[in-house]
Specification:
- The protein is built from three helices and eight strands.
- The protein has helices spanning about 5, 70-80, 145-155, and strands at about 20-25, 30-40, 45-50, 55, 60, 85-95, 105-115, 125-130.
- By secondary structure, it is an alpha+beta fold.
- Strands 1, 2, 3, 4, 5, 6, 7 and 8 form an eight-stranded mixed beta sheet that branches.
- It starts with a helix and ends with a helix.
- The protein has one domain (about 30-155): Nucleoside Triphosphate Pyrophosphohydrolase, CATH 3.90.79.
- This is NUDIX domain-containing protein.
- Keywords: Hydrolase, Magnesium, Metal-binding.
- Belongs to the Nudix hydrolase family.
- Its cofactor is Mg(2+).
């Protein structure tokens, strides 16, 4: 499955995936297709709601050609939350085993957001800050696992 076809996967297509975690920064940028950002703002977790979905998700997205995975995370966090002042830290590399058995690799980041500006025009409808994980999540087999990795690594509640 090509990177182009990976970008066309719908959220429900990832319901039976398997996850594996690796140390941060152990792969070349060319191997990392995705950035997911677990973020905090004013001691709350930051989630976004896509305009075409009824569920919440962590900010993130696909790396664009010529972009490093760090640049991707920076861009996606701004585009999906309006974050203007933040610290971004790589936490881990993760692999998703897709239904056809192929692995897709991504980089997990943690962002401590100091200020949120207006939400840029994009596919994101709104930003939701919460002290707890949402009941309805777009990727229930992926993002809770990634959030737990950040919480455990940083000793956060």
């Amino acid at each position: 499955m090509s990177l182009n076809s990976l970008s066309k996967l719908k959220p429900c297509d990832l319901s039976a995936i398997e996850l594996a975690q690796y140390p941060a920064n152990n792969m070349a940028n060319s191997q990392l297709h995705w950035a997911v950002i677990v973020a905090r703002y004013q001691n709350q977790w930051v989630f976004v709601k896509h305009k075409d979905r009824t569920t919440l998700e962590s900010p993130g997205g696909k790396r664009e050609p010529g972009e490093t995975i760090g640049e991707c995370a920076h861009r996606e966090l701004f585009e999906e939350t309006g974050a203007t002042n933040f610290n971004l830290e790589p936490m881990a590399t993760y692999a998703i085993k897709l239904p056809h058995g192929e692995l897709s690799y991504g980089q997990l980041f943690f962002a401590s957001i100091d200020s949120l500006g207006p939400l840029p025009s994009s596919e994101i409808e709104k930003v939701v800050c919460s002290s707890k994980y949402p009941d309805a999540h777009t990727y229930p087999n992926v993002h809770p696992f990634l959030l737990d990795q950040v919480k455990n690594k940083l000793n956060l509640a």
